[in-house]
Amino acid sequence: MPLLKRFVIERDIPGVQMMTQAELCGAAQTSNAAIEQLAGSVQ
User: Fold this and answer.
1) What is the dihedral of CA 14, 19, 23, 25, to 10 degrees?
2) 41 and 27 Cβ atoms separated by less than 8 Å
3) 30 contacts 24 by C-beta, under 8 angstroms
4) Which residues does residue 39 pair with via DSSP β-bridges, in sequence order?
5) Are 27 and 13 in contact (CB under 8 A)?
6) 43, 36 in Cβ contact below 8 A?
7) Are 13 and 19 in contact (CB under 8 A)?
8) Strand, helix or coil for residue 42
9) Alpha-carbon distance 29 to 24, whole Å?
10) DSSP label at 37?
């Protein structure tokens, strides 16, 4: 089994400390949708 590389993607979200729980969930959903579009390329 080949060795898999791992990466962490960080992003700055201006005003994140002021976001509601619902807004944070929305940001997570947007990120997950972007990863879904790369299906097979990344996890």
Assistant:
1) 90
2) no
3) no
4) 42
5) yes
6) no
7) yes
8) strand
9) 9
10) H
Q: How far apart are CA 13 and CA 17, in angstroms?
A: 9
Per-residue pLDDT of the chain (43 residues; tens, 9 = 90+): 778 788 887 888 899 999 999 999 999 999 889 888 887 776 6
Q: Is the pTM of this model over 0.85?
A: no
Bridge partners, residue 42, by sequence = 39
Contact 16, 23 (CB under 8 A): no
Q: Which two three-digit tokens encode residue 38?
A: 């790369």
Residue type, 14: P
CB atoms within 10 A of CB 1: 3
Rounded-to-integer distance, Cα 8 and Cα 42, Å: 12
Task: Report the length, in residues, of the chain.
Answer: 43
